[in-house]
Amino acid sequence: MPIDPQQQHLLRRLPGVDQLLLAVDEKAELQSIPRRVVTRAIRETLEDRRRRILEQATAVSESELAPAALVAAVTRRATQMQRYNLTRVINATGVVVHTNLGRSCLAREAIDHMTAVAARYANLEFNLEAGRRGSRYSLVEALLCELTGAEAAMAVNNNAGAVLLCLDTLARGKEVIISRGELVEIGGSFRIPDVMTRSGALLREVGTTNRTHLRDYQQAVTTATGLLLKVHTSNYAIVGFTAAVGLADMVALGRQLNLPVMEDLGSGNFIDLTQYGLAAEPTVQESVAAGVDVVTFSGDKLLGGPQAGLIVGRKEILDQVKANPLTRALRIDKLTLAALEATLRLYRDEAQAVKRIPTLRMLLCQRPEIEGKARCLAEGLRDLGDPRLEVSLRDLTSRAGGGALPLMDLPSCCVGIRLAGHSPNRIETLLRKGQPPIIGRIEDDLYIIDPRTVQDDELDIIVAALAEIVKRMPA
Ligand SMILES: *Cc1c(COP(=O)(O)O)cnc(C)c1O
Fold it and tell me: Using one digit for the tens of pLDDT, what is the confidence trace for 83-97?
């Protein structure tokens, strides 16, 4: 493409990298940033200006190419490059177990224990009693058994890994019978049928999407059958004309045919949520008590701990699972184990657990408390005194997320924000790109903040971020 005289003029005004390096050397803010980062920021800034000039001469003004402006742009870029890619965010979505936002915030006890273990050597695989090699799997086994009533237990990297490991151990090259109504897809492309294929197990679907009967399982059993599998339909529900086979019947059938029964619970849960007014979510204890041979669940969904896959069940089965070489590829690391052990210990006292574990606390948080936070936030925003800022309280609902309580709306009191002359999308973008990023949602053309998932000390940060936006927005 031919370059016009104005473009040529602008391109000639761009300094060289070395020239700009000398200019930025005087910038105090850049002294602590590694040279290679600064050089890279310079190259990228110049490249960006050059590209924009070549695209369209009018895209770049003369003043943008002034040395001071270029130095400022380099400083911004270099500072940005020094920020962590993985950063804390404020979850104002009201989705408690938000997979994209890291699922569960850890309890103080878990964080402290993790930090303590991280900074020092630990008895990760060393048996202090015997003074010789130990197993990392023994560190939470007794605790998991105590809490769930199972004979044996282990923890691996995540629940998808736990499912894979169990299927590979129990049903490699054999058929696994599962109801058509339970062929779950979890967000992030975890699909039960795909995991099965990977494990080398053969999927044998029975029943229909909405109805599966015991006779469907019975008729599907052959000498090739290796396992009966039940998967908790964690992120959806089939309602209306439905039938599913209960755990007790499946266990009885398994016993009768000498086949192991496995259940993937998805979001593992130790607490009867109905006593707090929530819908029933199956508990791990119920599955164990029903006689299921092996149960898998996540550490970081409703349980509120770190990412982990927990496997509990009969000793004979767990012995086989532990002996599978795949275990080595799915092994849990010491920081996760530390956080997991501390989280599990909190469950020894349920009253403590619901207070100390943030996921449970937010899930069980009652409307009056949320309304208190909403009022506090709304007041802070009104105190900014900008007539363009319209703030209202809204009766909306939060969600549990993480594939739990899919049909349950949790009543919440949200703050709706409108800034006259600007779209809610604009507010959403600016808050999302701030420091720390604030993630809310848009509903009915309003920017919505759900205080359920906002921590008390984050309310001021939200007010400050909006104050900054209001200040920058032209009236
Ligand atoms: C979430 C979920 C999984 C996957 O668990 P991760 O911990 O994300 O690996 C598997 N099965 C079910 C039913 C789930 O809900």
Answer: 999 999 999 999 999
The CATH class for the domain spanning 90-98+365-472 reads alpha beta
Residue 237 pLDDT exceeds 90: no
User: How do the residues of the chain divide into helix, strand and coil, expressed in percent and rounded to 5?
Assistant: 50, 20, 35
Identify the pLDDT of residue 450. 98
- Say how many Å lie between the first and final Cα of the chain, rounded: 40
CATH fold of 141-321: Aspartate Aminotransferase; domain 2 (3.40.640)
From 104, 186, 300, mutation site for ligand 1 pocket: most ligand atoms within 8 A of C-beta: 186
Q: Are 175 and 202 in contact (CB under 8 A)?
A: yes
What is the model's pLDDT at position 181?
87
Omega before 282 within 30 of 0, i.e. cis: no
Least confident of 257-266, 272-281, 459-468: 272-281
Residue of minimum CA distance from atom 10 in ligand 1: 266
| CA 352 to each of CA 115, 277, 304, 356: distance values in angstroms, whole numbers, following the listed order | 21, 18, 13, 6
Strands (E), 237-333: 261-266, 294-298, 309-313
- Cα angle, residue 467 at apex, residues 465 and 471 outer, rounded to 5°: 120
Lining ligand 1 with CB less than 6 A are 158-160, 163, 184, 186, 190, 231-232, 234, 264, 266-267, 298, 309, 403
Q: Can you give the residue ranges of every domain in the chain? A: 5-82, 90-98+365-472, 141-321
pLDDT tens digit sequence for 110-156: 999 999 999 999 999 999 999 999 999 999 999 999 999 999 999 99
Name the β-bridge partners of 289: none
User: Could you tell me which residues are beta bridge partners of residue 228?
Assistant: 177, 261
Distance 177 CA to ligand 1 centre (A): 19
